[in-house]
Amino acid sequence: MSGKNWKRVQPTSITHALRLCKDYAKEIHNRSVERIADLIGVSADLLYKWLANGRMPVSLIPAFELACGIHYASRWLVTSEGKLVVDIPTGRTVKATDVQQLQALLNEAVGGILSFADGKAEAGEVLASINHAMTGLAWHHGNVEKHLQPEFEFGGAD
């Protein structure tokens, strides 16, 4: 799995999402299933069982994702209900690379739609690229909106 573009991966089921979290933890943080289980306070055997059948208790998903360092299970739960997940914007100034990345996402989505119309692309791949493009646009919308609303900086006294 070396070199996987984790930002572009889309889980197809809750079981797949849990396994992707585990794979990410292994590749990026070098965490074994045993270490993840220890971090969330369960046995490795129980975690292996949940990874096999996708029946992890909902109350443990946040701890599991924190231990893994990525949120595939939460994202899958939300997107499986037809909702769009957008990271909370920071209100920071947009850089040229941000806009270039957005443009690439939009181009990929439009290209995917055209390929799908010609029967050359799979629906799942096209939906994933459209989702990425909409997420990018929504993030920029929120970022511009938040930039207009200044926040107080709470710091220590100088």
In terms of topology, how is this protein built?
Elements (H helix, E strand, L loop, with lengths): L13 H16 L3 H8 L3 H10 L7 H8 L3 H8 L16 H22 L5 H25 L11
Helix pairs in contact: 1-3, 1-4, 1-5, 2-3, 2-4, 6-7
Give unreliable regions as ranges: none
Number of helices: 7
Shape category: globular
- Computed structural class: mainly alpha
Helix content: 55-70%
- Average pLDDT for all residues: 89
The share of residues in extended strands comes to: under 5%
Order of helical and strand elements:
HHHHHHH
Number of strands: 0
Distance between the termini: 48 Å
User: Biggest β-sheet, characterized?
Assistant: none
Rg over CA atoms, rounded to whole Å, is: 19 Å
List its salient traits.
mainly alpha, 158 residues, 0% strand
Please provide a written account of the structure.
With 158 residues, this protein is mainly α. The protein contains 7 helices and no strands. The N and C termini lie far apart (48 Å). 18% of the residues are buried.
